[in-house]
Design goal:
globular; Glutaredoxin; 2 domains; alpha+beta; single chain; 216 residues; Glutathione S-transferase Yfyf (Class Pi), Chain A, domain 2; four-stranded mixed beta sheet
């Protein structure tokens, strides 16, 4: 069955890999699964056909036969469960490693990403508000608290728990949102960690595919 995902017809980031379809593209590239992309406009995202796939009118969505999914965490987890390459295999001795990799997926989305998104909102969308000058240091402080904890946990390792997993895919995708802020530069091991993720051939293919859509 053909896998079809949705993506922005014109991404707000101009194809720099920050739109969430990049995470799904990356996962599919890592496991070697071909896929098709249906591009949707901002207007089409709010219309009934798309809302039937994603009730909140966002991207990406994932369709495979009768299965329709939304939310990148759910989609990447489904891909990782169905295809080898993103989670340690189901076998004796590996169950705990698999569980830890899944835990890191949740940590990326639920613990690390929220303050990063809050920082982006404060800088980009609320920069002209009278209270932003006082609020911004507080928001950035919350991001730095998380980065300090993550940096300590990663230490000198290449990946979060043994080999590269879906947990690393999600964490690198989340940390990439900090590139323009310069905050990540203060944590050299995390900056190197992100660079390792970007250097993976599967990520490069995913990034190139999204960029190509936005430079047509």
């Amino acid at each position: 069955m053909t896998i079809t995902i949705t993506a922005f017809e014109r991404s707000p980031d101009g194809g720099q890999g920050l739109a969430r379809d990049t995470r799904v593209r990356w996962a599919l590239e890592e496991v070697g699964q071909p896929y098709e992309v249906r591009l949707v406009s901002f207007r089409a995202m709010k219309e009934p056909a798309h809302l039937a796939l994603h009730p909140f009118g966002q991207i990406p969505t994932y369709e495979e036969g009768d299965l329709a999914l939304f939310e990148t965490g759910s989609i990447v987890f489904h891909i990782a469960e169905r295809h080898a390459g993103l989670l340690p295999p189901h076998s004796d001795g590996d169950a705990d490693a698999r569980a830890r990799a899944i835990t890191w997926m949740f940590a990326a989305l639920n613990t690390v990403e929220p303050p990063i998104l809050e920082l982006a909102t404060a800088r980009i969308h609320e920069g002209d508000r009278p209270w932003t000058k006082e609020r911004l240091p507080l928001v950035e402080g919350r991001v730095r608290d998380r980065l300090k904890q993550l940096s300590a946990r990663l230490g000198g390792a290449d990946w979060l728990d043994g080999g590269f997993s879906a947990g690393d895919l999600m964490m690198v995708s989340v940390l990439l949102r900090l590139r323009s802020s310069g905050v990540l530069d203060d944590y050299p091991n995390l900056a190197a960690y992100v660079a390792r993720g970007e250097a993976r051939p599967a990520y490069k293919r995913a990034f190139a595919a999204q960029l190509a859509v936005n430079t047509r």
